[in-house]
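Here we describe the complex-level prediction in full. Unlike the single-chain runs in Section 2.1, the two entities below were treated as one system.
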Amino acid sequence: MTTSNEAPARAAGAGLSRGSIGRLRKLAGVGLTLPALIAIGLTTLFPILHTLWLSLNGPNTALRGTPDFKGLSNYGRILKSIDFQKALWQTLGFVTTSLALEVIIGMAVALALHRGLRGSRIFRAVVAMPLMVAPVVGALAWRFVFVDGYGMIDSLMNTFGGDGPLWFADVWLARASIVIANLWMALPFDILVLLAGLASLPTEPIEAAQVDGASAAQIFWNITLPLLRPVLAVILVVRLADAFRVFDVVYILTTSGPANSTDVLSTYIYRQMFTVFDFPGGAAAAVMLVLITAFFSLIAVLALRSRASGG
Amino acid sequence: MAVTSSNARFWGNAGTYGFLIIVSILVLVPIYWILATSFKPTSEILVTPTKLLTANPTLEHYGAAFAGDFRKFLLNSLIAASGATAIGFALAVPAAWGFAKFAYPGSGSLLSFIVVTRVFPPIALALPFFLQFRSLGLVDTPVGLIIGYVPIVLPLMIWMLTGFFRDFPDEIVEAARIDGLGVVGTLLRIVLPLSLPALGVAVLFGFLVAWNEFIIALTLTRTPASQTMPVGISTLITQFQILWGEMMAVAAIYLLPVLAVTIVSQRGLVSGLMSGSTKG
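The structure predicted for the assembly as a whole is:
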């Protein structure tokens, strides 16, 4: 984290006392970073603490600003709610399914592109296209692909005399549609980061293994994969936080339906806050979402650290 | 022996191509469907089985989209994303330079905290913003939205630029100091002109993140006076009758610039995504 240790040496060379130049550099650092820190304090730290405060009080605190301390009772109420439990489990299911598929498919595509066959650059450009597509627009497009009747899948199947499934009426198909639409938007990041990782791998160990007659599978499992661990951990940490806060895709594609079977924590919290107007309950659920995301991110970071130093 | 190995290579290559072609088709399907539908006459959109390509392409949906609130949504998106990016840039450049080159006690922890704010889901910020903005009269205003986007744009830009600035050669900074340039002068006259690609990537990222943002805009806007494109699209969906043609035209207009930018600046985007993460 710390940067130049050569500053004091330079200061001495310039004929100034070590202490004063060091102090000036620190002051410059504080001055440069302070405006941004104040902005983040006001727009991130303060709102988070405000949410925490609202979650510990009754509804009057949000409406009129008067304290009405209730301790952890809002948390108990939300934790007991069936809707919250459902959203929690469905979020965990979405995160694990999505991350597993992203890593497996992302790795397969990245390895295929990394072979560098003729035309790879075109495939790479095509595969990367959804990278920065707005989730709302991506979800809208998939809704129109899945929708019954005039949707693309149903139309295609009708053309061949069949009938497409009712994606948004079946619990598991609706969940699958969320995962697929999300996969479409997330994979470009996974693939591009994995490709960058593959390109930066040292070539010697792989060439040596090839000379020794190792198979492609052996090389992948024993050399490429362990060397890619830091890159995989980066993907895991970034995508984990994204997946836990998934909102747009669910809101646009299924609106949590059918019968809340695609509800996730973010959509639950939004509904609790702005439809039910249960501000304390919504705030308590939001704090729990932060804690859950932080907990799993921490695990991912710790896994990255031990593997990076051990391997 | 040589025959089998070249045979195996042929089938391996064929398999790779087959796989990449299938993946590419799956990636292109929704994009194709948006574009194809946006040019279809309304009479053809809801007819089953729908044709994959219309024989009578029309621009009626684009006309209808521009005649509606769509222009306001687009303008609001531009204002909110540009405003948040400008504020983010003005604050992130000095902050990243400070974190990268002027460490002070606690600066590492502060930078870590900024990176960690990523785990705060926007929904956890939405309620306090809404309550504060309601008493300040900022709900449903472009200014409110710009402020609401600072927490998603600023940490990202600081994170990316700190990664870039760490690699900025100390010799050049030292030379500027000997020439009598102060900290601010060095940053403005030496560092910034030499970091244009990195700054461009950071600006692009900040802009796109705000351009695509949904949940904060959904919470803080109420009417077309300040609603952004994603919110506008979502209100079009939840109306009793879904105007698919018009919506697909809107989606196409929103999508195409982003796709163009992605294809042109792919390398920059990847290096931007990686720079903060691998070193932070």
